[in-house]
Specification:
two-stranded antiparallel sheet, 2 strands
Length: 155
């Protein structure tokens, strides 16, 4: 705590890499084991959320507030939303069936998830995004191991 805050430069490049692919920022600064654990934890939680809730649990149009949290996983969330939009909502995978709503009828995929499973999957993907945001904030302050100077004198 005695170090001056200004002595530690922010590691912007590692933070961006860590957002694009969870754990990659820590791997860039030389913390391979921590990076792999972050990738395993964040990626595993996100994948489990998609397996529980289906592709439909990540949807930036219908669930915009949830997507803000899920977007913390970077490529995982955007790729899942792309698949949801181009496979399920377009009717390319599964048929579109009519669903009655208050203002009329809308066409939805026969694979659209609903109920508690969708909610749990959405929550898990959102938690994965928030976990990755914490990891990105962590790597933002970490110095690269390859850049650290040896301050001990060699005898």
């Amino acid at each position: 705590m005695t170090e001056d805050f200004q002595d530690k430069p922010f590691n912007i490049g590692a933070a961006i890499l860590g957002w694009v692919l969870p754990g990659l920022g820590h791997m860039k600064v030389g913390e391979m084991a921590r990076g792999r654990l972050i990738l395993l934890g964040v990626g595993g939680l996100f994948l489990l959320g998609v397996l529980v809730g289906g592709l439909d649990c990540v949807d930036r149009r219908e669930d915009a507030m949830w997507f803000i949290a899920q977007g913390g996983t970077g490529a995982f969330a955007f790729a899942t939303d792309f698949l949801n939009t181009n496979l399920l909502k377009s009717g390319s995978f599964g048929e579109l069936i009519p669903l009655a709503v208050q203002n009329g009828t809308v066409m939805v995929s026969s694979f659209k998830s609903a109920g508690p499973a969708n909610e749990v999957g959405t929550l898990m993907c959102g938690l994965a995004g928030m976990m990755n945001v914490i990891a990105v904030l962590d790597v933002l302050q970490r110095p690269s191991r390859g850049v650290q100077k040896d301050t001990q004198a060699n005898p």
